[in-house]
Fold:
Amino acid sequence: MAIWRFFQQHWPALLVSAAGVLLSFGAFWAIRGELGAQHRLEVEWVAQDRNRALKKGVEEGLDALRSIRDLFRASDRVGAREFRQFSLALLARYRGIHALAWVPLVPAAERTVHERWARLDAPDYRIVEPDDGTSPSMRPAAQRERYFPIRYLESEQHPGLVLGWDQGADPVRRTLLERAWLGGQMVVSGRIPLVNDEHPQYGFMAFQPVYRNDAPISSEAERRKALLGFAVGVFRIADLANAAMRVLEPRGVEFLLRDESAPEDEELLDFYVSRLSRHADSSGEYTQFPGWDLENAPRVTEVFPVADRRWSVTSSATHQFRSGEGFGEGHWIVLGSGLIMTLLMVLFILHTQAGIRLRARIEQELRKSEQKLRVLFHQSPDIIMTVDRAGRVLMVNRAMPRATGDGGPGQSDGGFLPERAAERFRDTLNGVFETGEAGELHYSGEHSTWWELRIVPLREGTEVTTAMVIATNVTEKRVLEAHAIRNARLASLGVLAASVAHEINNPNNAIQFNISVLSRSWGDILKVLESHQREFGEFNVGGVPVDKALKGMPRLLDGIAKSTQRIQRIVANLKHMARFDQGELDHRVDLGEVLNTTLSMLQSQIQKHTDSCRLDAPVSLPAVRGNAQQLEQVFINLVLNALQSLPDRSGRVTVTAALEPEGEFIRVRVSDQGGGIPEEVKARVTDPFFTTKGETGGTGLGLSISSRIIQNHSGRMEIASRAGSGTEVSVLLPVATN
Structure:
């Protein structure tokens, strides 16, 4: 009875209390479950970030190996020095690379030649076949017919990676080499043990085939013929993982890396311990994984390709996982709030939390999108801008070289371009807006630069409202194209010169032989003719009286002999011009001989332009270190420029060579009495494509190439000139010290 009376008196409070308790506990468990789901989702996001970073790190390491392939494809002359410089840059940039090597294909017949050339870089170099207990005669025929020795190597010390070691002698590696060779794609090995100062770790090897540029490789047979060798890389998996994770904020996530293509007992590659874990100094024993004792910890597994293999990465959160949730203990606050106030707070929190979560997700996506756009826009090597129909710049990532304006937003009517290109830009822009199709144009900028503009229409619906202008500096591309064309032309002339020299040399040798026989026979013929004259009187020889024939014949024979010698000198010059240039800069060069050869090859031009061309070079001139043919090219350009600058044949060209007073440099002066160089163009004469002789076929590359050759020889070029007073070009080259 008393209980019923109490209930009747306080039923509203009891009802509210009961409702408050029920609603409070309901809200408590609802929020707790939501936080748990959010936690698991966040763990998945963090794990996916780790997975992407790891995959990117592995791919960047493999891209470094592909760049070595590109190095050998871009140049026919990659020596030990070039490989070392390129490899050291890659090793410094990508921490996970353990070793980089170049492994050429060496047929057995060329083994001796290969070893002799390799000893120029490494005196102790030889092809080594590791002893596996098998007699050489019992090895497979393919192994006896060809070798895959390590020719160049940049690495830490590692067994099996020694200069000269034949990688094909190892059956496993030979299988990988054959698969990469015939497949034409990079091949990755299974795990291999690596040793560091603390404990053993695993790595893997990658083999990238390199083929000749001019050979087809669409079939296995074609790839078999076109192979040059392999770019080989050894990667430390732990370093790849550490380098990839270092760019991310520590969140308390660990992951296990496996090779799904390997046998079951060789699947394990690496276990990455979180930087927040108490076990971060783990001994590296992979049988027990620190932090993986959480039975309910969410895990994320992803499989991704690594060259021709498939790896998987499994990530899991640890006790130290850092959550981004700022209301992690909110369910306890809700539980303690009580009754009606608890109910109201729960409703408010649920409503507010849902809105905050939605806004946070939207803002996060916007930040990601904005960051990607900002990186693409501001770090692009090209200049990117948007313009309206009038050509006004609306947005630009950075200012571009121009003749007028500041190149920033608001600049209109093509004012960011040189005047000669602005009108073409306006015409092209109008065409883009009218047709809705992209357009492009090329123009030359200041300081002998070349630019390519691509104009792309931007639409809102079906109407073109703005256009995107992408400006690319293509100066280097133009220089390389012009240089390649010039080299091809010179190569063709060299082949023609060698062919002509060979064809002329054969009949000239016959003439020299015959004239020597005829000269020796003339003494006997002379006696017979004189005896016949005394006995029978005057008579004609070849329509000429015998007296004149007897006196003129020695001069004719001598003239023929001198003419054949002149032909021989011309042929020698042609052969010298056609000689193949190895491009090496480490020979002792006699500058006096170089200058004499230069003037000899330019004799026809000298006779055409001047009556006075003098060379003054002492016989005792010290040698310089460099490439004789390249220096000949420099002085041919300088002397030819001096000859072509003369107003008439009375002008003089003088070439002098002397040792500088301090004894460290030799100065070669080429001076002329031509019209000189105006002050306004003197600073640009060594720029690529700058020429004042465009009407007569000048390319503007002579002084530019000469300047680069002199710089490669550690020298310098000085130009002293004044309009109307002639020009003096000085070339200073360091004296060879040994």
About this structure: Residues 478-578 form one domain. The CA atoms of residues 18 and 339 lie 8 Å apart.
